[in-house]
Request: fold
Amino acid sequence: MLEHFFKSQSMQAVREGPHGPLLEGFARELCQVGYNDVTVRRRFGAAKHLVHWMGRKRVPVSDLTEDLIKRFGQHLAGVRVLVLLSNRTCLQARDYF
Reply:
């Protein structure tokens, strides 16, 4: 599934990581609801960044809340990422996770 959207070398690392199955399922869900390839890539990237950030903060995915997503949005503002799209995506990821 992920090879359709990303280079297989980078996806191997994601797949072998602690959140690989969760992220792959999220990408599959995005495809099933009909998002186009560009949107799937963007939303997957935001969700991947979110779980990576949570891992650095030692916060389990099961503890993902709207407050934590707001904190992540503050982090994104500091790294100059499009916060609006990412926050919306993070809420969607939270609902999936």
